[in-house]
């Protein structure tokens, strides 16, 4: 099952801002809603995308890879997810 564009956008915003709280502010959402969406994405993909700690978040290798794939897709260089 492929993730929808909106969920990928939420993840990319968290990735770009480095913070669920900052991403939520930018997206106009509650931090808990953004966190739930990212956790749902992780479950669907079967991979941890972010390391969470008291100091914030840090992308995992899988998170870095997904961010790269999303950027390629945005440039029209996608990997065939939508075929």
Automatic annotation (TrEMBL):
InterPro entries: LysR_HTH_N, WH-like_DNA-bd_sf, WH_DNA-bd_sf. SUPFAM superfamilies: Winged helix' DNA-binding domain. Residues 1-60 form the HTH lysR-type domain. The keyword Cytoplasm does not apply. GO terms for molecular function: DNA binding; DNA-binding transcription factor activity. Keywords: DNA-binding, Transcription, Transcription regulation. It comes from the Bacteria. GO terms for cellular component: protein-DNA complex. Belongs to the LysR transcriptional regulatory family. This is LysR family transcriptional regulator.
């Amino acid at each position: 099952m492929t993730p929808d564009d909106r969920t990928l956008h939420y993840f990319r915003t968290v990735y770009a801002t480095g913070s669920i709280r900052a991403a939520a502010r930018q997206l106009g959402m509650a931090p808990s809603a953004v966190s739930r969406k990212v956790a749902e994405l992780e479950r669907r993909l079967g991979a941890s995308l972010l390391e969470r700690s008291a100091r914030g978040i840090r992308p995992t290798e899988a998170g870095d890879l997904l961010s790269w794939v999303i950027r390629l897709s945005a440039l029209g260089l996608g990997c065939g997810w939508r075929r």
